[in-house]
Records
---
Amino acid sequence: MVATYYNSTAGQRSVIHANATATVVVAGASGVSNLVSNTTEVVIAGTINKVLYASGAGSYWTIKRGANLVGTYVETGVMDYNGHGASLKSDPTANIVATLVGSNGYIIIDVAKVSSFT
């Protein structure tokens, strides 16, 4: 498994689980965006609410939005951006690229969506 998408609610949120480097296409309609939950949803943007992560000794995760590094996550933990009063809104239309540097790890990313419907 590289990436699995679950708990996707139209117009609200999606949760991504990965155990290896993964690219999540944020913006687009069904068949384009990895975050859509039905054929009428068009995802316009996504902001990161929470990141849960773990990595083996000497390993870590990075998250990029487009070309911009927005987070580095070492060892095991939870970064609850929304719980601290604001989601991570850097480049909200850009793809989310979660990179495992090293080996053995997982990452769970909770994304709030801005969507329209056809």
Note: Residues 3-117 form a domain with the Jelly Rolls fold (CATH 2.60.120).
---
Amino acid sequence: MSESPRDAMLRWKLERDIEVYRFYLDVSVKASIFLMAVTGGISSYVLSKSDSPIISVALVFPAIINAGFAVFFFYSIREARRIARVHTDVCRTLGVPEFNLKPLRSVCQIFCLMSAVATAGLLLLMAASLGGKVRGGDCEKTRTALASSEVEMTR
């Protein structure tokens, strides 16, 4: 028994939706990991060079990139909902069980929040550093206090 051209087209669409879902999920995770690696690297460098507050201007780059990704992931939430809704409709029409495509929406929400928080943190760190609140002496005092508390904890 051969299927109708409409059913064949819907099956093709179903396969493409699943491929697009996998691609979006894969790219989202890889982009977020790359973004956090770049943000962490630049932030670590800036914090290690706290004797010169002007170096904190380097935090503008990861802040802008994080803000861009926050906006990107925010709009991706709507697209992920649409993909899941279309997938559900196609599966119902064909009478096949549907796949759970909701994790993509959740991943986009989590990455949007992570990027927004990272942007705010980077801008606050830059403002504090340029305002003179983060100085080399303060960082050294913090390191000394942490080291002494670690020694006390091991006793």
Note: The chain has one domain: 5-154.
---
Amino acid sequence: MVGQRRLFLFFLVAYVSFLSSAVAQGISAAERNRATFVLGGKVQKVELVGGVQVATVQVTASPRTPPAIGSLVDQEVRIITKNGSGSLHTGSSYTFYAVGTSGAAKVTVREIGRVSGVAQTFQFTALQPSIALRYSNADAVVRAQVTVQTDVPSLSAESSAEPPPPSEHDPKYQTWTLNIEDVLKGRISAKSISVLVATNPDIAYAGIGDTTTPTTSGETRVFALRWDPQLKSFIATDQIDVRPLSEMPAIEMTVKPVQGAKSKK
């Protein structure tokens, strides 16, 4: 217990340090957490549209994007700037924090904050302490593609002649078949495994993390897995057990110090 508390405090200090650095550069913690896009790149063109600056940016780094969008490196993105955020200069590089997407031919996002320059690496982007602790304590961490999603009854439901009425608090368990692409932590030799996942975003079952985009069959995610000896299966029953690929560098840095720790099969 003391060890877990110290580990949590370590990640909390690292996270606060990261946020303090971001705030010093003009990005608040709220803005950083709200951003669904973090894009670094060089401004190719700036135009005024209805009195608002709209920049065309050649992206050189995209550490965070929605899973459905994927990497935007080497693509041009239109960025609608935030009012009062200052002028953009053609040829200059920035890191943009943004939300929303539209446009058919070119992705368009709305800026909520930015800093000058583009870091050479985004490896040091800190995970939230709750997520870092969750992944550090996992029995296994894998990058895997979801191939099958099958609904299963609630494990807490007692057998009866009639099924229980629907409830917004039901964990909505599913069994997911995962095609393993990479094992970041633990000992999993199988190419495919089944995992029990609680998919209800209700606070009673969502756990301690932030809400992520729902996962559908065919998508690839990073999973924190725990072995359940009664079910004889891996489980992922907190919503932060399933993370987007954009967080993989930070997750790798988090689990690397304990990569050699003993895991369950």
Note: Residues 16-25, 156-161, 203-211, 257-265 have pLDDT under 50 and may be disordered.
